[in-house]
Design brief:
Distance between the termini: 43 Å
Structural class: alpha/beta
Helix content: 25-40%
Number of helices: 14
Number of domains: 1
């Protein structure tokens, strides 16, 4: 239980729960991340060595460079259409896109056809991205949410999303002696947030037959993202790459976690101030995409994906050209591909429209 001073969002949630009753884990996670006044992704910069967490593009420039070349190859596989939108969801500080566009200069025809669209709800991060990408010759524009991205008849779309699915709110179901319940968040006698029950009488999950008493099963709907991708695919060739951490389900377990200042903490400790995420069920995401008529490639481990794109060769060339930074470059690549770390836990999965060939590396 958290014993520090409650955050503004903690006080607001405690008042709401005291008035209306416990809320679901899904509602709690959504408020922590997306509350208009106090939500983490509405108010905080979050990403970077001095912030709460570091993502793959911040670890090594090679990550974004390989994604840029991947996008150029996909565009060629699409038949090199005259117009292509390169869309990034959750673009962070703009690092991935800057590295991607630098590498894509090797395919000038791709850049000549491209328009960059960044989907970013955080005004502070958008300002950082604008500064990062200020010198780009490729047109760049911003939209506040994926739903605002319009379909362009005849135009191709390539979507990049690194660590995006893991922040979509989850529902947690728990097996108890009285049956399945939906896990929720309530308040104790001291007015502090605590885990409890949001709803009783929940139907047993169809894929949780082996669950024991106390076990938790998580659900996350990605149908909205899949539906938007299908809408874009109906207008022209589509390819989407999602890289995130998680598993191929079904699975049992509580994966909800909070990160603050690059350290894990109790998910109830600092609502609105810490980042909340949960592992991605890639099998469920693939099912949502296929239900929309889209083809799915992968998932494959991040190490396999990056290895097939040439991360070792690219790193070796950079090390030779920058001997003073060789050790750092080598360490960064090792961090991205380590079988006991990001290389296995993180996975890449591709979604594409009919007629687009199997996506590279998947």
């Amino acid at each position: 239980m958290n014993t520090t001073e409650p955050t503004p969002l903690a006080r607001a949630l405690a008042a709401r729960i005291s008035r209306d009753g416990p809320i679901s884990v899904r509602a709690y996670m959504d408020a922590c991340l997306n509350d208009p006044e106090h939500g983490y992704y509405r108010t905080r910069r979050a990403i970077g060595a001095k912030e709460d967490f570091v993502t793959a593009p911040e670890i090594s420039q090679v990550f974004g460079e390989l994604i840029g070349l991947w996008a150029a190859v996909v565009w060629q596989q699409m038949g090199s259409p005259a117009r292509v939108r390169l869309v990034e969801l959750g673009p962070g500080r703009g690092t991935l896109m800057a590295d991607a566009l630098r590498a894509a200069q090797k395919v000038p025809a791709f850049l000549a056809a491209a328009e960059i669209v960044l989907v970013e709800p955080n005004a502070e991060l958008e300002a950082v991205q604008r500064k990062t990408l200020a010198e780009q010759s490729v047109p760049v524009r911003w939209v506040g949410e994926l739903a605002a991205l319009e379909a362009v008849p005849g135009g191709a779309t390539i979507v990049i999303a690194n660590e995006v699915l893991d922040v979509l709110p989850i529902t947690q179901l728990q097996r108890t002696e009285s049956g399945w319940v939906e896990r929720g968040v309530g308040v104790n006698d001291a007015g502090r947030l605590v885990f409890g029950v949001a709803a009783h009488g929940i139907a047993a999950p169809s894929d949780a037959g082996s669950a024991r008493l106390g076990d938790i099963v998580e659900r996350r709907s990605t149908a909205e993202i899949a539906g938007k991708l299908a809408q874009l695919a109906a207008a022209g060739p589509l390819a989407a790459l999602f890289i995130d951490y998680g598993y191929e389900g079904p699975a049992v377990g509580d994966t909800l976690q909070a990160v603050r200042a690059q350290h894990y903490e109790d998910p109830l400790a600092s609502p609105g101030v810490a980042d909340l995420t949960a592992h991605v069920d890639f099998t469920a995401f693939a099912a949502d995409a296929r239900a929309q008529g889209l083809a799915v490639d992968g998932p494959v481990p991040q190490a396999t994906f990056l290895g097939s794109l040439g991360i070792v060769e690219r790193t070796s060339r950079l090390m030779a050209a920058n001997p003073t930074n060789a050790a750092g470059l080598e360490a960064a690549t090792a961090r991205l591909t380590a079988p006991t770390g990001m290389g296995t836990l993180f996975k890449a999965i591709g979604v594409r429209s009919e007629g687009v060939p199997r996506l590279p590396g998947l």
